[in-house]
């Protein structure tokens, strides 16, 4: 997939991604985005067709920020490789083996509860008193198998395409031994399969049904995956080339810096990523018995301990699968604590207008009413307005959400005072950990005075999240909230003694990618983590200093410094019809991913370099921005003609097709278009998409959930 992160006016559609892959694959990604997403068609200036996903502010029904785009790509490629025939054959094999299991269990006097109904891959068996479930589990474990423990008298079995004939025989014989019946031989199972018409030849026409083969009411009869992409790549070589072709359209850290503010796009080291391909980590089921996961338990315990030290909190839950889910979990913990202490009537959540859009969305999902808190002209939290509203709602105040450093890229000098003010009026403080990159080893939520926070392991701790996932958003909390951390119905080890309900499917969320953050922390150590933060601060301030003579630096502290990111305000260029989107798209021609656009102000570029970038890369980016400033001046001086819609910024980005245009009707050279700097002549990343039609919406893939005021209840809105 080729995602171009650009922003147009916020009044247009908020998030639009150019997808160079076929429409079928693009559409399959919709369910992984927020629930308001829709597919749309678009075209660039060369009438080249592209597909987009878009979401409208008025239709937000979710606080989801980090989606699972990486996993969606994996699923899409699985479908591309196997195609409709291959997928149907795989499904038929799974169903045939499950039917065969149902027949064999019935012959053992252990009929599955759902054998008479249509099923696909799962059977549930109600065991007689003479066959305890514990005995079945014991026999299965002896054969290195796990079956699901439904209750003391019920077990469940689910098969998939990886189950071999021998493994199926082992499953059946585990039940046979538990029931005191003779074990089946290989030829017995083959005979049973043949008699039931479940041999290999049947897989081409097999339909979903019950154990006797009676077709179920929902058996699919229509064609599916009819698009060419799902029927073209039938060899591993072809698929490899197809994936590489798509990959060549993606700008990644392989090519250069991704300076997305508030996204922390740092290096995902090969060493920390290597554990993902190790079957000792990636082959473990999330509900495997505790005695089989002692290594994972130790890794999880170490990571929790390290995160406790980093946050200054005594307890951590790794269950949330994204930062937004961490927000929801943290606010739900606060609600549970208030309810348990006779304060369930408290439901007001104070949220600064500068907050990430997920903050008010999460508060609403947690059953709270949002009241917006103003920011001052310098970007700092308006403490007077906070005090007024905290005191006004002191009898119903539940929580205050604050980001530190702020979304403006500045350390809030009054953050401790703000926390004390909330506590004095009966509320709890939720600290958004999106900017923990500027805290690790330097300060902590616990030191600041917060009660609960979330961490983005997919940002601060190096789990890759380009394109939207996967994410991990654990929460840390103070001792009084620890008993309410989310539990899980299938694992009593998760959560506190008064745990809220699970907010993710698995007890420790996406456990297999916790290995990345664990390795990152262990390799750096405490001093290395602290140095990562300080280098981030140094890099951001160096870039801000270099660019300040050329662009307006919007927010700084009293010493003229920023935190780990900084905001450039491009409003002045509006006089020449130059927008944030124009500058961002022109950066593509210089070999850079766009910074975060039009947020937290509509005319801003939010830039975050991270500690991963060398001085040479920082200078390359600054040189590009300074060169673009020179182009803007040329446009203002009329050196690129009089048409404000035809210049090197308005026509950006320039794909390779520009070089083959027979006629060149633009008031600047082809060389300026595609090789605007010496660095691009030596190493060029070609944008695969020309300027898209902005009428289809802006191009910002960062989750935008509307202004805080959009979530405020009526009394607050009227004011």
From TrEMBL:
EC number of this enzyme: 1.4.4.2
Lineage: superkingdom: Eukaryota
Broad enzyme group: oxidoreductase
One MF annotation (Gene Ontology) recorded for this entry: pyridoxal phosphate binding
Modified residues (N6-(pyridoxal phosphate)lysine): 459
Cofactor: pyridoxal 5'-phosphate
Catalytic activity from the UniProt record: N(6)-[(R)-lipoyl]-L-lysyl-[glycine-cleavage complex H protein] + glycine + H(+) = N(6)-[(R)-S(8)-aminomethyldihydrolipoyl]-L-lysyl-[glycine-cleavage complex H protein] + CO2
Family: Belongs to the GcvP family.
Domain named Glycine cleavage system P-protein N-terminal: residues: 56-175, 230-487
UniProt subcellular location: Mitochondrion
UniProt keyword list: Mitochondrion, Oxidoreductase, Pyridoxal phosphate, Transferase, Transit peptide
GO-annotated biological processes: glycine decarboxylation via glycine cleavage system
Keyword Iron-sulfur: no
GO cellular component terms, A-Z: glycine cleavage complex; mitochondrion
Stored InterPro entries: GcvP, GDC-P_C, GDC-P_N, GDC_P, PyrdxlP-dep_Trfase, PyrdxlP-dep_Trfase_major, PyrdxlP-dep_Trfase_small
Function in brief: The glycine cleavage system catalyzes the degradation of glycine.
NCBIfam families cross-referenced by the UniProt entry: gcvP
Annotated protein name in UniProt: Glycine cleavage system P protein
Annotated Glycine dehydrogenase C-terminal domain residues: 533-654
Quaternary state and interactors: The glycine cleavage system is composed of four proteins: P, T, L and H.
């Amino acid at each position: 997939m080729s995602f171009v992160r650009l922003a147009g006016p916020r009044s247009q559609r908020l998030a639009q991604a150019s997808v160079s892959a076929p429409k079928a694959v693009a559409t399959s990604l919709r369910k992984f985005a927020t629930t308001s997403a829709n597919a749309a068609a678009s075209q660039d200036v060369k009438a080249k067709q592209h597909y987009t996903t878009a979401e409208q502010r008025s239709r937000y029904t979710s606080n989801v920020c980090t989606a699972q785009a990486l996993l969606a790509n994996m699923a899409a490629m699985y479908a591309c490789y196997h195609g409709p025939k291959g997928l149907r054959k795989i499904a038929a094999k799974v169903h045939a083996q499950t039917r065969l299991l149902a027949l064999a269990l019935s012959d053992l006097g252990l009929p599955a509860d759902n054998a008479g109904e249509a099923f696909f891959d799962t059977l549930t068996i109600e065991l007689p008193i003479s066959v305890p479930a514990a005995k079945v589990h014991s026999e299965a474990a002896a054969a290195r198998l796990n079956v699901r423990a439904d209750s003391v008298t019920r077990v469940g079995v689910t098969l998939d395409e990886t189950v071999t004939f021998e493994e199926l025989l082992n499953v059946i014989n585990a039940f046979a031994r538990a029931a005191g019946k003779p074990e089946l031989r290989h030829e017995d199972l083959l005979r049973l399969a043949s008699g039931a018409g479940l041999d290999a030849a049947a897989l081409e026409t097999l339909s979903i049904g019950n154990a006797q083969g009676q077709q179920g009411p929902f058996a699919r009869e229509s064609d599916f995956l009819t698009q060419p992409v799902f029927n073209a790549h039938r060899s591993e070589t072809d698929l490899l080339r197809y994936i590489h072709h798509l990959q060549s359209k993606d700008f990644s850290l392989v090519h250069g810096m991704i300076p997305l503010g508030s996204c922390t796009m740092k290096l995902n080291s090969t060493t920390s990523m290597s554990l993902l391909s190790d079957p000792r980590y990636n082959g473990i089921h999330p509900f495997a018995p505790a005695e089989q996961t002692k290594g994972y338990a130790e890794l999880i315990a170490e990571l929790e301990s390290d995160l406790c030290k980093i946050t200054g909190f005594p307890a951590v839950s790794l269950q949330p699968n994204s930062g937004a889910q961490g927000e929801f979990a943290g606010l739900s913990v606060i609600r549970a604590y208030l309810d348990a202490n006779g304060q369930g009537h408290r439901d007001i959540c104070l949220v600064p207008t500068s907050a990430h859009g997920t903050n008010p969305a999460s508060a609403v999902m947690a059953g709270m009413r949002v009241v917006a808190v103003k920011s001052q002209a310098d970007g700092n939290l308006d403490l007077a307005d906070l005090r007024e509203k905290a005191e006004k709602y002191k009898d119903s105040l539940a929580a205050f959400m604050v980001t530190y450093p702020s979304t403006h890229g500045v350390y809030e000098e009054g953050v401790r005072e703000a926390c004390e003010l909330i506590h004095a009026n009966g509320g709890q403080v939720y600290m958004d950990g999106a900017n923990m990159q500027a805290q690790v080893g330097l300060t902590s939520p616990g030191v600041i005075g917060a009660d609960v926070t979330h961490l983005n392991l997919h940002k601060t701790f190096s789990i890759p999240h380009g394109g939207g996932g996967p994410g991990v958003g654990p929460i840390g909390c103070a001792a009084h909230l620890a008993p309410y951390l989310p539990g899980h119905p299938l694992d009593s080890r998760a959560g506190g003694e008064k745990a809220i309900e699970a907010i993710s499917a698995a007890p420790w969320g996406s456990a297999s990618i916790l290995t990345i953050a664990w390795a990152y922390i262990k390799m750096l150590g405490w001093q290395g983590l602290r140095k990562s933060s300080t280098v981030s601060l140094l890099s951001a301030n160096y870039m801000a200093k270099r660019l300040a003579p050329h662009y307006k630096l919007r927010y700084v502290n009293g010493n003229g410094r920023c935190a780990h990111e900084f905001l450039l305000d491009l409003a002045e260029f509006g006089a020449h019809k130059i927008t944030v989107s124009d500058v961002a798209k022109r950066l593509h021609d210089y070999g850079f991913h766009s910074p975060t656009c039009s947020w937290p102000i509509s005319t801003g570029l939010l830039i975050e370099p991270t500690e991963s970038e060398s001085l040479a890369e920082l200078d390359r980016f600054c040189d590009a921005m300074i060169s673009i400033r020179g182009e803007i001046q040329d446009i203002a001086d009329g050196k690129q003609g009089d048409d404000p819609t035809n210049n090197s910024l308005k026509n950006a980005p320039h794909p390779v097709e520009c070089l083959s245009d027979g006629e060149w009707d633009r008031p600047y050279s082809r060389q300026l278009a595609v090789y605007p700097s010496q660095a691009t002549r030596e190493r060029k990343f070609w944008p695969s998409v020309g300027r898209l039609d902005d009428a289809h919406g802006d191009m910002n893939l960062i989750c935008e959930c509307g202004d805080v005021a959009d979530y405020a209840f009526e009394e607050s809105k009227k004011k």
